[in-house]
Amino acid sequence: MARPVPDPVRPGQESVWDYPRPPRVEHVPKRVQIDFGGVRIVDTDDVVRVLETSHPPVYYLPIAAFGDALTPGQGASFCEFKGGARYFDVHGGGVVAERAAWNYPNPMPGYEVLADRVAVYAAPMDRCVVAGETVAPQPGGFYGGWVTRDLAGPFKGVLGSMGW
């Protein structure tokens, strides 16, 4: 399948089509908050994001920032760049979202900073916020990127994007 035509980039935006492959990891000076089950389960400014061609950024937060909101979940997966992932169930306000978070406990070279960090799927959460903006989940349900106003797509996960 041919690469899609990138959306126009407006002032203050970055195109996900300018992100690299293999992905790049970078610290960002932004506060991230996650609400689930009617309670705030994370509030941190220790934020790393992973940027990969066609994907909105995936935000990784310190495991310790989640307190008791994470328990080991079922299953595992593998990323050709980052390595083997394990999953977590997310808890908040008496409710549980199974396999709603993941991390790379023994990441591949170049991604070591992710070892003690967790990413969360936005869709099952009440609200995920980056720098004061409530995010939208990456389309498709499989991927864990967070869509904000400062991004131009189209984003992997939309109908017909499996071959991108």
Describe this structure in words.
By secondary structure, the chain is mainly β. It has one domain (14-152): Beta Complex (Metal Binding Protein, Guanine Nucleotide Exchange Factor, Chain A), CATH 2.170.150. It contains no helices and 15 strands. The strands form four sheets. Strands 2-5-6-10-9-8-7 form a seven-stranded antiparallel beta sheet, with no helix packed on it. It has a four-stranded antiparallel beta sheet with strand order 4-3-11-12, with no helix packed on it. The protein has a two-stranded parallel sheet with strand order 1-15. A hairpin with a 2-residue loop joins strand 11 and strand 12 (133-134). The mean pLDDT is 96.
Reading side by side through the largest sheet, how are the strands ordered?
2-5-6-10-9-8-7
Major sheet description: 7 strands, antiparallel
Distance between the terminal alpha carbons, to the nearest Å? 7 Å
Radius of gyration computed on alpha carbons = 15 Å
The fraction of residues in strands falls at: 35-45%
Number of domains: 1
Spell out the CATH superfamily.
Answer: Domain of unknown function (DUF427)
What is the structural class? mainly beta
Unreliably modeled segments = none
* Average pLDDT: 96
Share in helix: under 10%
Report the CATH C-level class.
Answer: Mainly Beta
| SS summary, helix count | 0
